[in-house]
Amino acid sequence: MPETVLAPLRIAHVTQRLANGLRVIVHEDHTSPIVAVHLMYHVGSKDETPGRTGLAHLLEHLLFEGSQHCQKGQFDRMLEKVGGTNNGSTWLDRTNYYEVVPSHAIELALWLERDRMGFFLPVLDQEMLDVQRGVVINERRQSYENRPYGLADERLHQLLFPAQHPYSWPTIGYLPDLEAITLDDAREFFSSYYTPRNAVLVLAGDVTPEDGFTLAERYFADLEGGPPVVRRAPPAPTASPSSARRGAPRSRRT
């Protein structure tokens, strides 16, 4: 039977970069009159430090709590009025936020993401931090401590990576670290990573590249690019003495 060779997946797109460093990618597809607006920040749990794990995921929760020109609860309501949806997620290397809206409402989604990127810190206070810290702690207990085998993945990462390696801890963080996060920690983390220089905006769907780049310039070009992001080098992996002695596996006699 001849071997089937799959062609690599290629999605047509056009890329530009704004003067403030924001990378903009547009994929044009007029099959349906909808547009996905996706904003990804190059920050995840790997950018945390021991003792402050869970900070990236906590920031994701906080950014759904409102901004200077969009009060708490209005973000979802405004999108729902036009038939849109939204969500976000945090992982080891990135944090993303997205909206899927009818194409006539693309500017609403861009305005909301602009306000989160440029005008979130004025509304971040201790009460907001404490409320969402409690939400995340309950999420961790439900998904890890109170679930059969819930700690298996956490333990696996601890075994795979050295203790100080940023992939060794869970994205949701450890309970003592979550309890120790301060308002200054959250503010510094946001200021360091939630910047145009450290983000990628993707527009996919019923929008032309020309319109997409024009809208990106309109809503994001006046925001400060932010400081250069300094990445910490992870510790080099080392083989344990026991694994070094084992060497290559021997073939089994039959």
Write structural notes for this entry.
By secondary structure, this protein is of the alpha+beta class. The chain has a single domain (about 20-195, about 210-230), classed as 2-Layer Sandwich (Cytochrome Bc1 Complex, Chain A, domain 1). It is built from 9 helices and 6 strands. Strands 1-2-6-3-5-4 form a 6-stranded mixed beta sheet, covered by helices on one side. Strand 1 (about 15) and strand 2 (about 25-30) form a beta hairpin. Helix 3 packs parallel to helix 8 (about 210-220). The longest helix is centred in the middle third of the chain and has 20 residues, at about 125-145. The chain is globular and about 50 Å long. The two termini are about 30 Å apart. The relative contact order is 0.22.
**How many domain regions?**
1
- Tell me the total number of β-strands: 6
What portion of the residues fall into strands of 2 or more residues? 15-25%
CATH-defined superfamily: Metalloenzyme, LuxS/M16 peptidase-like
CATH topology: Cytochrome Bc1 Complex, Chain A, domain 1
Instruction: Tell me the major beta sheet.
Output: 6 strands, mixed
Strand order of the largest sheet: 1-2-6-3-5-4
CATH class category name: Alpha Beta
Poorly predicted runs are: 241-254
Q: H/E series, N to C?
A: EEEHHEEHHHHHEHH
Q: What shape does the CA trace take?
A: globular
State the distance separating the first and last CA atoms: 31 Å
Helical element count? Answer: 9
